[in-house]
Amino acid sequence: MALCAGAFFIHSAQKQPMIFLAGYRFCKHQVTGIKTHWRCSTHKNHGCKAKIHTLEDNSIIKCYNIHNH
Ligand SMILES: [Zn+2]
């Protein structure tokens, strides 16, 4: 979880919710049950596999903050 220290959530009425972490942006990708999956914003362009899983209360339960860019 140390890699996830400092993550913060952006909730905006106009834009997609996002997580900022260590200079990277994560976009909301999928909701499965109580879990929300977030992917690095460059996933589509670079195939980056970094991801974060959160619960409804925004607690981070999984963090893979390894980027290929
Ligand atoms: Zn990335």
From TrEMBL:
Which segments constitute the FLYWCH-type domain?
9-69
Q: Does the keyword Zinc apply?
A: yes
> What terms describe the molecular function in GO for this protein?
zinc ion binding
One short Pfam name that applies is FLYWCH
Q: What keywords were assigned to this record?
A: Metal-binding, Zinc, Zinc-finger
Q: What is this protein called?
A: Modifier of mdg4
Organism of provenance: Operophtera brumata (Winter moth)
